[in-house]
Each structure stands twice: as structure tokens, then as C-alpha cells.
């Protein structure tokens, strides 16, 4: 039966992808595609890269959130609530200040390194404090992220780059994704497949350090591998399309509430649901004030905040793995 659900999910995702390809200022039909070269250019240069970017970024950030929840043994955490995205933003800003002509690959590398350092700092802080409630973990992450964001904003204001930083990182706008700019996101696609392949290791690590060591798992290596995947995914997505708030939090939780906690079985659904949710937000953003657009991150932030509050208020006992 679950394989039926997976097939249905894939069919829905294909349908949303087709809607994404056909939604925009220029109408695309089979006839115009066959007879008009401009229509083909719009499809292959703009619409198709945008749809692929939505699919890759949505699924990768959802899986990154799932891995972070397993490694911290807490359901209320994701990269944007653990200082990871804020650290990546700081790295990206420093590149804009000191190496403004750097390539997107160099920006992605520095952003990923800063994301890795920020995530490691968050994990070290968690080990140093006594966690009397599962809700303390996201609070610690929010405070750490706020400190890093404050430093980032100060540097951006000092160098007159606040508007550029805001547009680059917090825009979350896929309208600027074109052929030649989104291809780096294929790396997060490979990282997502890698996470699916080693899902069992993350599951065991999520049961605690003592349990993982007792069953023969190299706990330290799995933690380093998980942190690296989270940092790379966050750094790449931030560099290419900007921030996607809450998706790494709400998607794994909703899938877990419906299908349980077997990561090996649920991770394909996390990928599909995450990609579909970002697609829906982007399509809504393109329709409501057409021909103008609302960034997908704005709609995603509103939906994510409502679900996050619901989980905090109604599901406190559910928070801890």
C-alpha cells in the first residue's frame, strides 16, 4: 500500500512540475512550442531551470532538516533554526566584501564552510548545556542564529551591502534562476541521494551516542558526515536561490506524524513532499499578483510559521525522539 502512496506522490509532483512549466507571463502551448523559437527559449532558458531548482532545493533542504533532527534528537530543529543558514549568510557576505568578483562556485564553497563551522558550534553548545526540555534546543539555535545575523547585518551596513545581502539571501526568489546559474543545485541532488543511501546510519545515530557505539556504529564519523551534508546543502541552496525558511522543520515532522519514524521508508516521501511544497508556494506566488511575483520564501515562511506554532503548542510531548 505504501508503494501506492509513493507512486501517487510522484504523479502529483509531475503534475505540479508541468503546472510550474506552464505558469508565467508568456503562455506556452504545444503549438507555440513547435512553431515559435522564442517560446522554446523561454522554456529551456527560464522555466525548466526554475522548475528543476524548485525540485532540487525543496527536497534537499527537507532531507537536511531530517538529518539535523536525527543528529540532535529533536524534532523542532532545522538549519535555519540552528545557526547554519545564518553562518552561510555570513560567509557569503564576506565573499561579497573581500572578493566581489568571485564565481558562484567560490561563494558556494565559502558559504558551505561557514555553515559547517556554525553547525559544529551549535552541536558543541548543545553538549555543554543541560536540556531539561526539548524546546530548549530550538531556542538555543535561534539565539545563536540571532547573534550571527546581528554580526552579518552590522558588517553589511558598514560596507553598504545591506540591500544586496537582503536581495541575495533573504529574497528566496526563484525568478532569477536561469540556465547557467542553477546547475550547482545538481550537487544537492546527489547529496540527497547519498543521504537516502546512508539513512540507516543516521537512524542509529539518532538513537543516541551510547546506543550507536554499542551496536558498532562509528558515531563520530556519522556525525561528521551528517554535518557535512547539512552544511553543503545549506551553503549551495543559500548561494543559488536564498533562504527557504521552515521547510526542513515542517516536512519531516508532517511525514513522521503520518507515516512513523522509520527513516529508511519515510525519506523518499520527505523528498517528494518537500519538493512539492516549494513548487506549490512558487506557483501561488506567480499567480496571486500576476504579472508580478511574490517570492516563494515569503509564502513558505507564512505556512511554516503556522505549522511550527501548531507543533510547539499541541505537540510538545512529540518533540523529542
TrEMBL record:
It is found in: Cell membrane. InterPro entries: ABC_BtuC-like (IPR037294), ABC_transptr_permease_BtuC (IPR000522). GO terms for cellular component: plasma membrane. The keyword Membrane applies. GO terms for molecular function: transmembrane transporter activity. Its main location: membrane. This is ABC-type enterochelin transport system, permease component. It comes from Frischella perrara.
